[in-house]
Amino acid sequence: MKDIAIVIKLVVTEKKDILFSVFFGFIAGIAAVGLFASSGYLISKAALSPPLYTLTIMMASLKLFGIASALSRYAERYFSHRATFSILSNLRVSFYERLEPSAPSIFQKYRSGDLLARIVGDVESLQNFFIRVFYPPIILITVFLSTILFLTFYSIYVAFALIVGLLLTGFILPALFAVRQRTIESNVREERGELSTDVTELLYGFRDLKIYQKLEGKKQRLIKSSDAYVKEQERKGITDKFNLALNLFAGLFVSWIVLALGAYLVVEGQLDGIFLAMLMMISLTVFENATPMAILPSHLEDSRRAATRLFSVTDVTLQKENLLKKMESITSSKSLEIDMMDVTFSYPTDSRLVLNKVSLNLPEGSKTAIVGPSGSGKSTLLQLLMKFYQADGGTIKIDGVPISKLTQENIWRETNIILQENHFFYGTIRDNLLIAKDGLTDEQMVEMLAKVNLESLSLKDLVFEKGENLSGGEKQRLAIARAMLKGGHLWLLDEPTSSVDALAEQSIYRHLFQLAKHDTLVLVSHRLTGLELMDQIIVMEQGIIIERGSFEELMNKKGYFYKMKQIEKSVFM
Fold first, then answer.
1. Among 212, 203, 292, 207, which Cα is nearest to 247's?
2. Mind giving me the DSSP string for 195-211?
3. What is the largest distance, in Å, between two alpha-carbon atoms of the chain?
4. Do 197 and 274 have their domain in common?
5. CB-based contact 512:416 (threshold 8 Å)
6. 448/441 Cα distance (integer angstroms)
7. pLDDT single digits (tens) 58-74
8. Could you tell me which residue ranges the ABC transmembrane type-1 domain spans (predicted)?
């Protein structure tokens, strides 16, 4: 229930609208009871041929209760729905604040389809929490208790019968429904997540499935997931209707008891017969407030599951303000020094060590290349420096400050980053370059495009989603231009020119090294050409550093790096 407590905390932030909703909901409920009580009394009184002024007063009271009921019901709907939309907004903001720090590593734990189902479907499910879960019991209890208090002036026995009805329809039956509902809601949510995953994989993998002629099998799996989800939805719908029917039956049964008990009391002379119709009408009306309790277990379980699935993605409650007070910062006016000591790391749910007691020092202003075969841990090392992940052991310091005391934003602000896969947004070339830094001029952006050999592109050229209309080399060069425009003093480059031809690569590196002349630069690369300019070269294999030194030192050593260089020469010559 910890996750539901988080939702409740977000709900009560909208105190004003909640109080108005409860107030007008109570007025609407009491006005409805008063309306039917007056009509029952009027019918009985009219049968006794009372004076005209008595009927006139009673009819006026009926109109008063009717108008009050309609207006208060409208106000209740207005404020409750406004509160719901505000709560939903608060929920989304809170969730994304929790999700943001985990975003770089989130796909290591969750498949994209399942994550999409949580972010969209589960958040939408919680829109019913206030109106269907939080709010109905308050109205039920306040209206029932006020009505019961009113009935004690006429018959303590009838009041007691309504208390039993309140307990039965408001608490006992919903509790029994909740036990049954838990399994059903769990199945519905899991099937929805499975369906979202299959849909996402089919859309993303459509081309490859078509090429390898496996599309039909994937379609059948999608249809199977869809049928399973529909079946669970039907089961849930049947259960909801049954719960509603049983709750209505219980309310009507109590009303029959009230009628029988009232008739008995009239016969025994303990109740004036003129009030019997009034008591019966009150009983029928007040149990209308118990109807939402029949579907409350369904929405409660739905909300509980949604909250659990949502906040399990971000299982640590963020206390951002308190954390920021404890955080230190790094200076942006100079290049940065990096120290790593006995760093070990393995990915979540993977027991294999990706980095094993890695130690290195990168002096400020130095140029370092990290090379080695695929899977040796080069890219992972950069991801730890960017604080995408937390090291399992050892220490990492940037400019003398432990990385654990630095926020991700502080590190990224001072860093020019080029990853193996860089995201490009739907828009223009200008839009995708402007995210590098505020205040960039068109002249600066055009000049940078020229430096990365993208003179053929204009700032107005359209970029499709994920840069689908750009080649692999154009994507890399655009990412390099974006990084060069940012102006940070730490460069983390992960295979920045793997899709760029040799001549363009040489030109780009010349401009890049000139721009980063006084900055700290770390280059991860499979290619060994052009490393003569590096201050040091670190060779990694299977998560450990096996060699380090300058280009000349490693070549003279004739070790692993020398062999790699000879193999590269034999392949490309």
1. 292
2. HHHHHHHHHHTHHHHHH
3. 120
4. yes
5. no
6. 11
7. 888 888 888 999 999 99
8. 19-288
CB 394 within 8 A of CB 469: no
Tokens of 41: 């009394």
What's the CA gap between 235 and 163, in Å, rounded? 33
Phi-psi bin for 213: left (phi > 0), alpha (psi -120 to 50), beta?
left
What the block records as the tokens of 559 is 């070790």
CA triplet 1, 14, 89: central angle to 5 degrees? 75
Q: Which range marks the domain in which residue 400 is found?
A: 338-414+488-572
Determine how β-strand 520-524 pairs with β-strand 490-494.
parallel
Closest CA to 536 of 358, 361, 373: 361
pLDDT level of residue 316 (50, 70, 90 thresholds) = very low
Find, among 65, 61, 76, the residue nearest to 33 by Cα. Answer: 65
What CATH number did the domain enclosing 385 receive?
Answer: 3.40.50.300
Final residue of a structural domain among 316, 349, 374: 316
Per residue in 69-92, pLDDT (tens digit) is 999 999 999 999 898 888 888 888
Q: Vertex 338, ends 394 and 483: CA angle to 5°? A: 125
Q: Say if residue 310 is in the same domain as residue 348.
A: no
* DSSP code, position 438: T
Please report how many Cα atoms fall inside a 13 Å half-sphere around the Cα of residue 136, on the Cβ side: 23
Burial pattern 350-378, b for ≥16 Cβ within 10 A else e, equals eeebbbbebebebeebbbbbbbbeeebbb
Q: Please report whether residue 433 resides in a domain.
A: no
pLDDT band, very low/low/confident/very high, at 289 (cuts 50, 70, 90): confident
**What is the number of structural domains in the chain?**
2
Q: How far is CA 122 from CA 114, 232, 313, in A?
A: 11, 17, 12
